[in-house]
Design brief:
The chain is built from nine helices and 14 strands. The chain has helices at 127-139, 152-164, 169-210, 219-225, 230-241, 245-263, 268-274, 280-291, 295-299; strands spanning 3-5, 10-15, 29-37, 41-42, 54-62, 64-68, 71-75, 80-83, 89-90, 95-96, 99-106, 110-112, 115-118, 143-145. The strands form four sheets. It has a seven-stranded antiparallel beta sheet, with helices on one face. Strands 7-6-9 form a three-stranded antiparallel beta sheet, with no helix packed on it. A two-stranded antiparallel ribbon has the order 4-10. The longest helix is centred in the middle third of the chain and has 42 residues, at 169-210. It starts with a strand and ends with a helix.
Amino acid sequence: MSTKNNKVGNQGIWWHPDDMGPLKSVPYIRQFGSMKFSKVRMDENMRPHLNDGIEIHFVKSGKYKWVVDDTEVELLPDNLSVTTPWQLNGSPEGKMDIGHINWIVIKPEEFATTHPLNLGKWTKLSKKFQKSLGKMMTSENVIVIEKAKVFKKYFVELEKELSNQDKGFKTMVGNIIENLFIELHRHLSLREQQISIEDNFIEKLTQVVTQDLNKKWIIEDLATEFGMGKTKFTYEVKKLTGYPPNSFIINLKIEKAIEMIKSDNFSLSDIAFACGFSSVQHFSATFSQRIGTSPGNYQYK
């Protein structure tokens, strides 16, 4: 067994192309690691990198600053991250903080942005299932599943089977990975449904508000219309748009104002009234604050 336990404060196992260990018997697994860091350390191997497979990380403990292509994320306990063979991922500084992280790299027979996922002959998962899983994995730029403690058992079972190499362990390893992919498919399906619900929520909110921008919107009334309390409604809007409801509504007013300015058919007072501002002065001040220039200057840019 390839075991790391040294003075710089890391211990565990890591099998990889230069030290395959039991992975020689399951060549579709390119890497498997379970490392516990008791001290902060720098590791060039953990800098952003490409692997020739699907790379999955599971954080048992600790907090890790991570990057997927150009997007920075934070991996927290019970978080699962998934990257495709063409995505750079790793620690931007090659810094591994105190904690425990597991990872596995599974090389598919074929998988690209232009080719559906084909895991290879080792699996009994249907082609339809594999295609669906691959499509979901390419539909998001960054996949980090939070509160994914259910995945912990797969890494524990894999470590046990790979370490012991008891009779039939190759079959057991294949079954565990298939179950991991089934669980991943289930989670990504739920994410797609949630994203669709969230998109519809913001689309409906936008439609409701823009139908009557001149109205003085009361957040409690809007929340009731969406079957929510004010607190939950405010939380959802801010989570999905980055703005609290009142600020999001102002953004919609400014968007409509810009559209009217560009048409060159309306006076500033007409625009201010149509977009629900109390006066031209109020409109000009808000517009300047949000856009960085006055409506008049914007009109003649």
